[in-house]
Amino acid sequence: MNVATKSENFEPDADDDLPLYEARRKIYPIAVHGTFRRIKWALLLVTLGIYYLLPFVRWDRGPNAPSQAVLVDLVNGRFYFFFIEIWPQEIYYVTGLLILAALVLFLMNAVAGRIWCGYLCPQTVWTDLFQVIERMVEGDPRQRREKLKSASRAQRAFEAAAKHFLWLMVAWWTGGAWVLYFADAPTLTMQLLKGEGPMVAYLWIGILTFTTYVLAGHMREQVCTYMCPWPRIQAALTDEYAFNVTYRYDRGEPRGSLKKTEALKLQGLPAGDCIDCRQCVAACPTGVDIRLGSQLACIQCGLCIDACDTVMEKIGRPTRLIAYDTEMNVQRRIKGLAPVTKVFRARTLLYAALIVIVGGMMVATLAMRGSEGLSAIHDRNPLFVQLSDGSIRNAYTLRIVNKQSMPRRFALSVEGVPEAQLEVVGGISEIEDGRPVVAVGPDQTFELRALVSTHAKLPAEASLPVTFKITDVAGGETSIAPDHFKGP
Amino acid sequence: MADIHKNDVDAISGVSTTGHEWDGIKELNNPLPRWWLWTFYVCILWSFLYWIAYPAWPLVTSYTYGVLGWKSREAIQTDLADLRAQRAAFGDKLAAASLEEIEQTPELLAFARAQGRAAFGDNCAPCHGAGGAGSKGYPNLNDDDWLWGGSLEQIQTTILHGARSTDANAHVGDMLAFGRDGVLQRPEIVAVADYVRSLSDLPPPAGVTPDLAKGKEVFAANCAACHGDEGKGNTELGAPNLTDGIWLFGSDRDSVIATITNGRGGIMPAWSGRLDPTTIKALTVYVHSLGGGK
Ligand code: SF4
Ligand code: SF4
């Protein structure tokens, strides 16, 4: 029972014990057909297709490198995405992706509210899939109700069992596909089939089977309404120009049965197009009656539009009594004003600009980064030492990264300190042109200590900018790392 | 749920309020979703099970042990054993390799330096500082001046046996207290101090005219035996080089005079009994790589 809708004239009563919890209203949405349902089918196929098949896409990266197009290699600390290879020290790309994702979500929201929720959110996609299975096995809600009365207990139990079994199969394969992103997919699939897979793979399959089954099979719209923070944030970000699924009450009200409204219309009295058939409510996966206005629980899936359009076509009235429209336009039409569309507003432009900037920066850095890297960390303790001959020396830890799948040799040099002497501890194979040469293995990071000293007289409280530089002896590519040289 | 304001009913929804109000916005007393409530109950149940299974309640002198018998101390021991087993592969290599081999194998060197850094922080940092920078009386291990020698072997020997420690093989070498023991008179001490300072081109303080000739004479008679004729020091005896720019006990005139008057002799403990040989190897390599190793 829902107290919120209990009665308009609530009478306070000393014995009226409010229920401790709200029992869930079970929602069994009816199947609908129409434009938005077709879009949802298409997106469901595409997104699930990508999710389940992507791990099997191969990508040739040469020897010694995995040939999986998308792979999170936790053991070696690498992330592969087609031609992009990300190292742990480049984790900021992931940060950038998250920022981009947030901005895209904001932009979608500014244009059309919770549209992400209705079409692309994994929770919606899997719930949709689970509901299809449910309708396939147990029939649509009307058949269900009839079966509750007529069908034998055994048949109902069998159908329920079949439904849960199919759900679990989907859930299990959802978890199965997840782990394939973390290891070579064909190999792991074989291992899993033979029961020789790593323990952690089984564990994650178990976890994802469980969460998918519970979230998509049992919690469904409750996740979208109560657990997800996005509707709250979204509600604060939206404005009157956003296209939300809207019941056009300027056209629909006053509602009444088909007969009644026809009669009223004949008499020239006001009558709306809504015939109160409640198909829009029956179709809604979150149980919303959209005719009450835009609501937190509505995920903008458009299924009520399809449901109502079907009704409108049947009774020969224009479709889109419910449509993606703005609250602003409903109000304007009531006042007899022409509807306005404003897609280019301050917030949409701002989000779009930010997306272009962040995306552009990421593409630029991706394109410009070399296949080697250098970083320098100055010793903090001591900042400098005085040597016996009076010269000043600073020590640094240098890290050289070779991202190529072949061994390379880098010559190390330092600039910025007058009369600088460079000395390296560990890993020096030879000297070339007075520069120490470091050999770094394929796909490896090499750490060494660099000692820079100078005889030159430094200004008091000196802190000179220095630049370390590595040059690939064979290829000539260079990388630099800036730091400081401290003196007394 | 105690304080439901049944008389305060929201006009639109017909729901009573909780009596909480912020800026005119009232909180409706809607019930919780059932799944939420059940999650809450399950958490409470879980906490009870936890109390039974694991150590939870303090008693007067001990605590409830929990039926699983889990102990954090044992868990640590297991973790440590696992860690040792994991490291064994490298640890064995480190134990087998000579110091030179370690220096020449990049992976071993990295491993030894990492282990050495940790051991240094635990054992050596109190005297030599976290980065080995030392302080007055405690040598800086980053510079190129070594009392007992800066080669890998010499550093290892020093760590193993210490200096002026109780170890039988410790480095020995004491500087006499020339003034306190009455070997030299005050003017001689001042003269030799000025001379020693001049060896590393330190200027005399304003208003002082050093008697370098006399200082040189005193030096040759008393100091050259340990510090060498030219004052370049002797790592056999731990006698510092007096001609360089590094002064362990201070280079100002008063400090040098005090050193000559009272003698000096820093003590470093021997680590051979306290740290295992592999750790000492790692320490040696780490100290050597700090920048001063020869
Ligand atoms: S109200 Fe319409 S758009 Fe909103 S969730 Fe329900 S069916 Fe989807
Ligand atoms: S489906 Fe359309 S006509 Fe039927 S109740 Fe909903 S809005 Fe009214």
Residue runs with pLDDT of under 50 for 5 or more positions of chain A: 1-15
By secondary-structure content and strand pairing, the structural class of chain B works out as mainly alpha
Uncertain spans of chain B: none
Count helical runs of chain B.
11
* Cα separation of the termini of chain B: 77 Å
Instruction: Name the CATH superfamily assignment of the domain at 73-170 and 268-291 in chain B.
Output: Cytochrome c-like domain
What gyration radius of chain B follows from the Cα positions, in whole Å? 34 Å
Shape, principal axes of CA atoms of chain A: elongated
Q: How confident is the prediction overall: mean pLDDT of chain A?
A: 88
Mean pLDDT of chain B: 89
Approximate helicity band of chain B: 40-55%
- Order of strands, widest sheet of chain B: 1-2-3
Query: Any idea of the CATH class of the domain at 73-170 and 268-291 in chain B?
Result: Mainly Alpha
What is the total number of structural domains of chain A? 3
What is the terminal-to-terminal distance of chain A? 78 Å
Characterize the largest beta sheet of chain B: strand count, sense, and whether it forms a barrel: 3 strands, antiparallel
Helix fraction of chain A by DSSP (H/I, runs of at least 4): 40-55%
Q: Which chains share the greatest interface?
A: A-B, 40 and 43 residues
Pfam families (chain B): Cytochrom_C, Cytochrome_CBB3, FixP_N
Pathway (chain B): Energy metabolism; oxidative phosphorylation
Family (chain B): Belongs to the CcoP / FixP family.
Binding site for heme c 2 (chain B): 175, 223, 226-227
